[in-house]
Write the structure tokens for this entry.
Amino acid sequence: VPMQPKVTGLSMLPDGFFQITAEGTPSLAYDVEYRNDVAAGMWLLLTNLTANPGTGALNFIDPEAANLAQRFYRFTLP
């Protein structure tokens, strides 16, 4: 049974990029979706990630975050 990723880290990098680390089901593909207003708008696909086959680790860096006041993310199954 695929598990919803558990976020293990959130950080703003020195270049202004935003990094999310998480643990999911090993080798499972996930979509990373975003929206800039948590209460309004559709969730949009940002990228696809595949969890590490051995550990299930997921690592995502959003370079666009450097130019935004806020952005919200979620992991979904494709």
Q: What stands out?
A: The two ends are 15 Å apart (CA to CA). The chain has one domain: 6-76.
